[in-house]
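Question: does this match?
>
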Amino acid sequence: MSRGPDAAENPARILLVDDKLQNRELLEIMLRPEGFVLLTAASGEEALVMVAEAPPDLILLDVMMPGMNGYEVVGKIKRDPVTKNIAIIMLTALDDRDARMLGLNAGAEDFLTKPVDRAELVVRVRSQLRLKAYGDKLRGTLAALSSANEQLGRRTREIASAQGLADAATARLARLQKITAALGNTVTQDSVADSVLREAIVALECDAGAVVVTTEGEDGLALLRESGSLDAIMCSFKSSQAPHERDPYDDAVKNCRAVYLESFEEMLVSYPAFRSVNKTDSRGAWIFLPLEIGGKAVGALAFGFGGARKFTVLDRHFADAVARYCAQALDRVRLRVAAATALAEAGDARMMAEHANNAKTVFLRAMSHELRTPLNAISGYTEILEMGIRGVINAEQAKDLGRIKRAAAYLLRLINDILTIARLEGARPLNVIPIPVNPMLSEVEGLCALQAKANGLTLTVTPCERETVVAADAERFQQILLNLITNAIKFTGTGGNIDVTCDRDASVVRMHVKDSGVGIRLVDIDRVFEPFVQIDRHLTSATQQGVGLGLSISRELARAMRGDLTLQSTEGVGSTFTLTLPIASEISLASSIAMETPPINVRKHLEKRLVEERARAQRTLSRSVAENADGDEQGRAGDLTSMPLHMADRGTDTMQQELDASNATRVSRELADIDAALERLYQTPEKFGRCEDTGKDIPFARLDMIPWARTCEHAEK
């Protein structure tokens, strides 16, 4: 313990050793005024005990003592590394040179001759304490320097080791970059395995390598690529072990665990099934790594080393990275092959669908023609009965005939709708009316809630903050919303969310269908609205897949209702489809009605048609009157060629035979109807007529599509 001699707060401790009490007391009297802590011992043995318990800063030691003399005490203290730095001043009555030299040789720092002068004693004590303090400080500094040097040396060695690891890691990283670059250009599994083995064998400094993969439909493994000579352990995938005996490939593939065997002996301990293998014919160390994709191993990567080897952390990290890159590259190749196969199958399926669609169209057109012919006959015979040609009909019969005519008209409309669908031109004209949005959203929610729940999805429909009415076709409006929500259900995984919200401004309402599904790439956003286009068909089952018309038709319907359908999507996050429709107002509804008003050229065509029909009917009436007068059969044939449009399509011999004198009455009525129609067209061409079959207003543009005789009664002026 180093203490400054002048430090009052930490005074020096001095041990006084003398066998005579008066000498000890005298020394105490001399030194006490200086503020030292004074300790006393009556013998050398007692002094040594006190020094061992608490070493003092300085010892005043008498030379001549019974038992152990001062020289022996000095020798023991100086030989102990713990106490050798304690300053010792020897006190002796001997005044010869030999006695002094003996004490100095024993290790004492100074000598005083008895009787001791107080002033000299104090000076000598303070001098030795000062020297000891300097010595302690110097030794502390040297110890700190030694510790710093040792720490510096250790850091230097660590830096050198780290530099070596960094160099090795840099080299491995360069190899990994080469592997990555090579794998980026591979198109087959064999080329993937060749690139991996070529670079990894050099980086790991091994002698052999192999890539094995699982075979579909079988439990075994197949060799994809090998490099170097494979020993029995690396070829163990070829042989079938007993069920209770494992091999490294079992752990790598079945258990998805990396296997590092650093010696032949460790291999035998881990896999006793190979105890019959000769050590001289096998490698000395092995690595078996799983080729893992999505938590499942699709193969293994194996390396063999010529001798026993301690695999470092860097070795293991590098090997694991190589196996991971190899697995990803093999998976990309498999996906690329599967995608090419799927595209080919999709092309074939689309071609078959187009052929089937063409066949359907031809069939529908042929059937519509075949169905129109008997429908025309039904309409014609019904009119004959209504005209009383077969006899007078009563009120009940007239009511039944009206039902027959309405059923025939309804069937004709169905045939026309089927043809329109076949041409993909819209099933029928839009009926744009004011539609409240919130009730429609509630109805759609009820239709889709069960499907969403069955798929483990959360469907949330939030109504508009205030009641909003749009101008749209109710059925088409619902069709678009159902299509968007069912699409979201198909492409959103279990646990996802589908939110339907709406907002509005002064002129339009926007309904948003947002999902947390797979999303769509930016380059594919515009393509989803193209006919016969489906993005990510592999994400839906065969029963869910369509032909890619839903979104295309939905957007066309939205635009036909003066709205639009747009998409915002982020791949892997989800998609938001936005349906925009105009808010219902008198102006928007009037513009919708105006779309049904026949344009000027249609009115001219209708006027010309009516005039031509009137002239033809007049000629027919004249011939009928003449033929009824002379009974000429030739006049009957003329009736068929000059009959009204709705009867000319019948084209049967039976119809020709049944034209008789009452034909004149019918043609007279037809002339009256034509005159009324012309008068109505000239006076109020923008108004509507009213069909007596349905009781609904229809535009004049459709007069040429229904029977002329007594089909339409014109509205009151």
